[in-house]
UniProtKB/TrEMBL annotation:
Organism: Slackia faecicanis
Keywords tagged on the record: ATP-binding, Lyase, NAD, NADP, Nucleotide-binding
Protein family: Belongs to the NnrD/CARKD family.
Binding site for AMP: 203-207, 236
UniProt-annotated binding residues for (6S)-NADPHX: 40, 103, 159, 237
Reactions that this protein is recorded to catalyse: (6S)-NADHX + ADP = AMP + phosphate + NADH + H(+); (6S)-NADPHX + ADP = AMP + phosphate + NADPH + H(+)
Record protein name field: ADP-dependent (S)-NAD(P)H-hydrate dehydratase
Gene: nnrD
EC number of the protein: 4.2.1.136
Subunit structure, interactors included: Homotetramer.
Cofactors demanded by this protein: Mg(2+)
GO biological process, one term: metabolite repair
Family annotation (InterPro entries): CARKD (IPR000631), Ribokinase-like (IPR029056)
Chain ranges of the YjeF C-terminal domain: 5-296
Origin superkingdom: Bacteria
């Protein structure tokens, strides 16, 4: 297992060419939020915008749309239904990634939508929050595995509770999976990555990133230097938006997860320095993403990478 170093994180940081435009930089589409969880949509969309996506499109409910128009006027805000009326391929002119599930309540309708999204999108997809429930059924799991076979990346970002829910489904569907109670977190991340054919970011006090790709099997990356200041509602939604933005800018999925996790942890630490560990909110973490990124860029320049 390897720790995520600044050098590794730097691999996924895009360098902006002088002739880029908002589309060639990368389009990040987020299918997020619900009337119950408006804030998660706002945090994920704001984080994707901050992390460098050239064009951010939010597909959400009316309540979140109203807030987003005010707090992120640069994001284009559409209804969730509209997502399914459009094409979502990633092309050279418009590299793209989709983030789904932050702030979804995980209803049957949500599960249906996320399965459709996994089938429809020929671009990298990141599933978080209520969207992860789509994998805990045969049809959703099959859709994820099909994407893997077709070489279309899928990333999942469960916390411990969501990871256990997914393992329970695998056990019930008679898959040959180890008892999650006996697994170390890094082994749990790898078991999920392999079972669904995804890159799994298992979040917690330490965060572990594993890939289902056999070629890099056992290649688990760890972020062991987080801060308990991050243990606040909404910080996971920010991480999902950050990784989504790196994915749409063309980063390799594993590298995007490593870099997103690294910068997220650093943003938490910088926020804790400014605001005290105790007082940090998810909004503060978001506010420090740019400082964490600037610090990483300075370090890369200094070391001549
Ligand atoms: N402002 C907003 O709009 C926000 C909206 N949000 C959105 O809410 C939706 C629901 O997400 P959720 O995480 O709140 O609830 P859920 O999926 O039911 O899982 C929670 C259960 O899992 C367990 N658990 C075990 N380990 C755990 C761990 N390490 N971290 C956390 N939980 C752990 C624990 O069970 P216990 O161990 O207590 O039995 C707990 O009861 C989702 O779409 C999300 O995006 C949030 O992002 C917050 C801000
Ligand atoms: N004690 C801790 N130390 C370091 N990081 C933590 C700690 N607790 C939680 N985190 C981080 O905070 C984030 C919480 O994400 P998540 O549980 O999905 O919250 P939410 O759904 O409310 O956004 C994750 O990135 C996780 O790694």
């Amino acid at each position: 297992m390897k720790s995520i170093t600044s050098k590794k994180a730097a691999r996924a940081l895009p360098t902006l060419r002088a002739d880029v435009n908002k589309y060639t930089r990368g389009v990040c589409e987020l299918v997020v939020g619900s009337d119950r969880f408006v804030g998660a949509a706002v945090l994920a969309v704001s984080a994707a915008n901050r992390m460098g996506a050239g064009y951010v499109k939010a597909y959400t409910g009316e309540k979140a749309a109203g807030v987003l128009h005010i707090v992120q006027p640069s994001a284009v805000v559409l209804s969730t239904e509209e997502f399914f009326e459009e094409e979502h391929a990633s092309t050279e002119c418009r590299p793209r990634a989709v983030v789904a599930g932050c702030g979804m309540a995980g209803t049957d309708d949500d599960v249906r939508r996320v399965i459709d999204l996994l089938v429809l999108c020929k671009a990298p997809v990141l599933l978080d929050g209520g969207g992860l429930r789509a994998l805990a059924c045969e049809e959703g799991a099959a859709a994820a595995r099909k994407r893997f076979v077709e070489g279309i990346p899928t990333v999942i970002t469960p916390h411990g509770g969501e990871a256990l829910r997914l393992m329970r489904f695998l056990e019930e569907s008679a898959q040959d999976v180890p008892d999650p109670g006996r697994l170390k977190p890094q082994e749990l991340a790898l078991a999920l990555a392999r079972a669904f054919g995804v890159v799994c970011v298992l979040k917690g006090p330490d965060t572990f990133i594993a890939t289902g790709d056999e070629e890099s099997a056992g290649d688990v990356a760890a972020m062991l230097q987080g801060t308990p200041a991050l243990a606040k509602a909404g910080t996971g939604d920010i991480l999902a938006g950050m990784i989504g933005a790196l994915l749409c800018q063309g980063a390799d999925p594993f590298d995007a997860c490593a870099a997103g996790t690294f910068l997220h942890a650093r943003a938490g630490m910088l926020a804790a320095v400014d605001r005290s560990e105790l007082c940090v909110t998810a909004e503060d973490v978001l506010d420090h993403v740019s400082a964490a990124t600037a610090a990483l860029e300075r370090k890369i320049r200094k070391e001549g990478n």
